[in-house]
Design a protein that fits this description.
The complex is a heterodimer of chains A (369) and B (356).
Chain A (H helix, E strand, L loop, with lengths): L4 H12 L42 H6 L2 H18 L11 E4 L5 H12 L3 E4 L9 E10 L2 E10 L2 E9 L4 E3 L3 E4 L12 H4 L6 E5 L1 E3 L10 E5 L13 H19 L7 E11 L8 H13 L6 E5 L9 H16 L7 E3 L16 E10 L1
Parallel strand pairs in A: 1-2, 7-9, 12-13
Antiparallel strand pairs in A: 3-4, 4-5, 5-6, 5-7, 8-10, 11-14, 12-14
Chain B lengths: L15 H8 L15 H27 L6 E5 L4 H13 L2 E5 L8 E10 L2 E10 L2 E9 L5 E3 L3 E4 L25 E4 L11 E3 L4 H9 L6 E3 L5 E3 L10 H4 L3 E9 L8 H14 L5 E10 L7 H19 L7 E8 L10 E9 L4
Parallel strand pairs in B: 1-2, 7-8, 13-14
Antiparallel strand pairs in B: 3-4, 4-5, 5-6, 5-7, 10-11, 12-15, 13-15
Helix pairs in contact in B: 2-3
Classes of the chains: A alpha+beta (369), B alpha+beta (356).
């Protein structure tokens, strides 16, 4: 693979500037002056909003970065964060992460990605909090060429991956290394997003390896990238779509992981939540209050079963997303993810595609006999 | 004054830096023309400064009710000017911020702004809701563009003794006591109501049979639309799982007149006495409305019992108790329940758990 001179120069400059690895700032960062050497004037009219987080943004750093660099960092952030959202201990609906003000372009794009993934973010002056996010970018000159690896650490959880820059973009050059969770092997990467940059018949490696248990063999695949894969910028998969897909995958995997033996349970309560139409994800204050009241009676060991799909054909993507929306609402009240199950379609009614009237979602509270 | 109710919304957002430069002068009365000269823009800057003051005023109280270090607040990703101002304040206070696509989350933040009047004297009432908590205050824009609070700060869903930041409106001089304090009230009712939460028991079928024979029903809906069993037929509360591990610290009976749903002065005073002991960090309030004995009311025993429980629930909520801190149920039958429950009254118990 050809690595452009410009990229090498940039990476070397970063390394020499002491950006070998970015760790927790020791002092309150508000007074820190961003180290902006030069501002590319062509960036002046650029809309930086997609790269700036709401919490802890550093506008000067982003303004100084080239568009190409920001796009690549955004892709890397999407890749790493889409793995994080599939870790049970880090469910965005319930976990609040602590972050310091971004000091690098990667910091900005990473925090923005965490926001887009739905995490709660709390700005701290140092490294307070049990879910403090530290991250790093490290450049190495290796026998197989220059490599940059990026890592994120949140508490005991850690994800890391190496990437390489080519003429057409940035691509993974290692498996995603995950540690600190037993569910690392359940993570499914959507590495196809790198393919959208296009390439010249290049191949890169894809898969997840756990660093905690050497007995677990990683599932490795290869992804080919060709020129015809090049997708116009506007048509590339959005970061939000990447995370939504990853979160959906997680909830589905969780439902399938431990099928519930309902013979050991008895039904305790039942509520039918009404969504105002077939597309909305807005639950409304009444439905939210009903969830709050049901959660009030939750005891460890209880299960809530959410039935959102009643379509005769058994397939309804909107209903599935609505069901996950209700699952997330329970999770936001502290109910463990594995205590809320999404029921399979009960195939009881026919609803025309164009029917946009109110839709029900049933929630049944089960308790051990 | 012609009253014209409308939702006032501005869409343009100026950089926070501009705001801070102007707000940094310490008074919202600073002539904005010194910053921006175009009149239309000036108007928007003034509006922003006033709304910034409102945001600061409301968030100052919120942070006393929900601690920033342990609270994550959900906001919609689509934010108008006022939401952005609230967001800036929340970040500064150290709250966790979660941006959501719809209305996800236990602490989803919403606000409502109702405008009354026009011209130089414009009244705006802002209501900020976060989870169970609701904070409301009215303000008036007077000639010259200054913002005046014209009502007390109203709190619902919490009884924590909060304070107002008096320094925010110091420039106005002396305000009246009526404006300069906090009042507790019940939260706004949901327009679509709360979905019914049914109780599922094996007695459902027999309950239908009992009803057909004129015997007291076995279950009915409480004030939160949660189905509860009739305690006349058993001692265990419908909310035993919620009360497990808690200690009962008081038990009082709020008396009601024959076939009455009115609390009267004595009943209201009893509620105040109970609330004097209530600690919202640790306590739940159990409310059992009773009607046991003959009745001439069209409501019947069931209606009277649950109606009385609802009346006491409303009274508790009107003093700032959150709905989900109250467990209301009932006991009804056309005959006496003996010593277990009163004939015409509501049993109110305080149950205390461990502090979080």
């Amino acid at each position: 693979m050809n690595v452009t001179k410009a990229v090498v120069t940039t990476l070397l400059a970063s390394a020499m500037a002491g950006c070998v690895i970015k760790k927790i700032p020791e002092e309150p960062v508000a007074a820190t002056q961003p180290a902006v050497a030069e501002t590319d004037l062509s960036n002046r009219d650029r809309d930086n909003t997609p790269y700036l987080p709401v919490v802890g943004a550093n506008e000067a750093i982003v303004a100084a970065a080239s568009t190409e660099e920001l796009r690549q960092l955004q892709l890397i952030a999407s890749n790493l964060v889409s793995a994080l959202v599939q870790i049970p201990e880090l469910q965005p609906a319930v976990v609040t992460l602590q972050v310091s003000r971004a000091e690098t372009a990667f910091g900005n794009t990473l925090i923005r990605a965490l926001e887009n993934a739905g995490f709660g973010l709390q700005l701290v002056s140092a490294d307070q909090g049990k879910n403090y996010v530290s991250y790093g970018k490290r450049f190495s000159e290796t026998d197989s060429g220059p490599i940059t690896d990026y890592d994120i650490a949140i508490g005991k959880l850690h994800v890391r991956r190496e990437y390489i820059t080519t003429d057409t973009g940035i691509f993974p050059s290692s498996l995603m290394a995950v540690s600190g969770t037993q569910q690392a092997t359940d993570i499914v990467l959507n590495d196809a997003i790198f393919r959208e940059q296009g390439g010249a018949g290049d191949t890169f490696i894809s898969g997840v390896q756990t660093e905690d248990d050497l007995r677990v063999r990683p599932v490795i695949s290869e992804v080919d990238v060709n020129e015809y894969d090049t997708t116009p910028e506007a048509k590339r998969t959005s970061q939000t779509a990447i995370f939504d897909e990853a979160k959906k995958r997680f909830f589905e995997t969780e439902s399938q992981r431990a099928p519930v033996d309902f013979s050991a349970y008895q039904r305790s309560r039942r509520a039918v939540l009404i969504f105002s139409n077939n597309k909305t994800m807005m639950m409304g204050p009444g439905n939210k209050q009903a969830v709050r009241l049901m959660v009030r009676e939750y005891l460890p060991g209880d299960i809530f079963v959410v039935t959102a799909c009643t379509d005769v054909d058994g397939e309804n993507e909107n209903a599935r997303v609505r069901g996950i929306r209700v699952e997330q609402e329970f999770a936001s009240h502290g109910v463990p993810v594995d205590a809320v199950a999404l029921a399979e379609c009960i195939r009881a009614s026919y609803r025309h595609e164009s029917d946009n009237s109110e839709v029900p979602v049933e929630v049944v509270h089960y308790r051990i006999k | 004054m012609s009253v014209n109710k409308s939702l006032v919304r501005t869409t343009q957002f100026f950089g926070l830096g501009v705001l801070l430069v102007v707000a940094g002068c310490g008074t919202p009365e600073t002539k904005p023309t010194a910053v921006v000269e175009a009149p239309a823009v000036t108007k928007k800057v003034s509006q922003r400064l006033r709304e910034d003051l409102v945001a600061k005023d409301l968030i100052y109280v919120l942070r006393q009710l929900a601690h920033p270090a342990t609270t994550t607040i959900q906001l919609p990703t689509e934010q108008d000017v006022f939401l952005k101002l609230l967001l800036s304040e929340l970040i500064v206070e150290g709250y966790g911020i979660q941006q959501v696509q719809a209305d996800q989350g236990a602490n989803f933040l919403r606000y409502k702004r109702e405008a009354d009047g026009s011209g130089d004297s414009l009244e705006n009432t802002y209501t900020l809701s976060v989870g169970d908590i609701e904070i409301t205050r009215s303000y008036e824009v007077r000639s010259g563009g200054s913002l005046f609070p014209i009502s007390a700060m109203t709190l619902a869903g919490s009884r924590i003794a909060a304070k107002i930041d008096r320094s925010l409106f110091k420039h106005l001089g002396q305000t009246t006591v009526a404006v300069d304090n906090i009042k507790y009230t019940s939260a706004t009712e949901f327009s679509d109501g709360i979905p019914t939460i049914s109780l599922i028991t094996s007695d459902v079928v027999s309950g239908v049979t009992e009803r057909a024979t004129g015997a007291p029903s076995l279950q009915a809906l409480n004030s939160s639309n949660v189905e509860v069993g009739n305690l006349f037929f058993g001692d265990a509360s419908n909310f035993t799982s919620v009360l497990d591990g808690r200690n009962r610290v008081s038990r009082d009976i709020v008396p009601f007149g024959d076939d009455q749903l009115r609390m009267g002065k004595l009943g209201k005073r009893m509620v105040l006495v109970i609330l004097n002991e209530y600690d919202e960090r640790t306590d739940l309030i159990s409310v059992v409305g009773c009607s046991n004995g003959k009745t001439n009311s069209e409501l019947g025993n069931e209606g009277l019992a649950l109606g009385r429980a609802e009346r006491v629930t409303q009274e508790l909520m009107s003093h700032g108790v959150a709905r989900d801190r109250i467990l209301d149920e009932g006991c009804w039958a056309p005959q006496s329940a003996g010593d277990r429950f009163p004939s015409r009254g509501v049993v109110v118990e305080l149950w205390r758990g461990d502090a979080p």
